[in-house]
Amino acid sequence: MVWTGWVNETRLAARSIAAYATDWASPTLRLGVTGLSRSGKTVFITALVHGLLTASRWPVFEAQAQGRIARVRLEPQADDGIPRFPYEEHLATLTARREWPEGTKRISEIRLAIDFASNAGFMRGSSKTLTLDIVDYPGEWLLDLTLLGQTYTEWSRLAIDAARRPPRAALAAEWLEATATAEPFGRGGEAEALRLADAFTRYLKSCRDERVSLSTLPPGRFLLPGEMEGSPALTFAPLDISGRVPPADSLAALMERRFESYKRLVVMPFYTRHFATLDRQIVLVDALAALNAGPAALADLEVALADVLAAFRPGANSILSSMLGRRIDRILFAATKADHLHQTSHDRLEALLKRLTDRAIRRASFAGAGVDAVALAALRATRETTVTRRGESLPCIVGTPLPGERAGAETFTGTEEVAVFPGALPADPTALFAGPDAFRGEDYRFMRFLPPKADPTQALPHIRLDRAVEFLIGDRLA
Hints:
By secondary structure, the protein is of the alpha/beta class. Helices cover 37% and strands 16% of the residues.
C-alpha cells in the first residue's frame, strides 16, 4: 500500500507540473460538485451553467454584476473518456417538462470558457479567458476514499459495529443473520460470497430510504455500481474475523482479496484521475431530509461530512503546491432546498449546516483552505407570501407540490398551487444534537415541490446561487 501510494503521488506530481505549465498559457479551474444522494447536484450544475451562459442578474457575483464578463461559451471537454454532463437535456427536463432530473450515477464533466476583462492592478481592462471545468461525481464515491486507510479487518469491524446499533440494527437484521451463519475460515466459494454481498447491498440500500436517510454507507459502488455491476470487485462483504489471519483458501481470504481489489481497481483510479485534480469543491447537503428522518440521521450526516472533508487535500495553493500536487483551496458547504423554508428560516438553516460541518470546517481552515457555508436553492421552486389565519400572520411559501405529497388528510396531484406554512427551524441548532430523543422526525416535515414554470432563455429563479458562484470562482475573474 505504501509503494502504491508513493507511485500514485509521483504520477500526480508529474501531472500537476504539466497542468501548471499549461495554466500559464490558458488558466483552468477545476470545480468539483458533489453531495450525497438527492442533495441536488444535477440541478445545481444545470442552474450554474445556465446562469453563466445567459448572463443572469447575479448581484453578488461581482464580475458579472460589474459587466466585466464579455462572453461565456460551452467548449468540448478535454478528456474524451469522460461522459459530458448532459446540460441541455437536464435544462429541458426542468423547464419544458417541469420534472426533477435523475440524480448523479456516474462521473461527468462540462467545460465553459469565460471571456472577461481583468480588474486587477496593471492588468485592469485587459481581456482574459478562464476555462472552467465542472466535475460532477457522486458523494458516495467520495466516502470510499476513507477505505484507502483501512484494512479489511478494520473495515469489517466498523461496518458490523455500526450495523448492530439503532437505527441500522433493524435494517441490517437479514444481513447480520446471513453473516452469523457464514464460516469465515471455511473454504470460500463464489455462491457464498454472492449470498453475503447481496444481503449486504440490500442493507445499504435500505439505509438510503428517506424515512431513515443515513449517509455513511461505503463502499459507494455497491449503491451506484455503474459499469462494474456484478464484477468480483463488488462481490464482497464484511466478516467478523477478530484479527485472525485466514487460511489462503478460506471465505475470509476471498473477501479480503476482493476488498483490496475494490480499493485498487475502483477507489484509487477515481482518486488519481479525478478527485486529486480538483482546485475548488462544493459539497451539497440535504439537511432537511436528515431532519425529516430524525436525530440518528442528523448525527450520521455529521459523521459523513467529517469523512468527506477528511478525504480532501485542503490547503492554500502556491507555485510549489500547484507544481507538486494540486490542493483544494476553497470548499463550500451548501445546504440545498432553502426554498422549502420561508426566508425567515434561511439563517437558521445556515446555522444548522455550520453546526453539522463545524469539525470539518475547522480542520480545513487550519490547513489554509478558504471554507464557507451557505443555504441556497439553485432553482427556486416556491415564492413567499403571508397568510392570515385566526388573526395571526403566518410566513408561508407557495408552490406546486409533487404528486403524492400530503398535508394532513389532503393528497396533492401535482396540478394545483398551494400556500404552505413550513414551520421554523430552531434559532439555536445545538439542541438538535442532544441525543436520540432530541426531536422527532415528525416534528419536521418539508413538502417537496415541482420545478417552477420557467423560460429556458431567461434567468432562472434561485436563492443565493450568485453568492456560491462568487465564492467558488469570483477571485479567478479579478
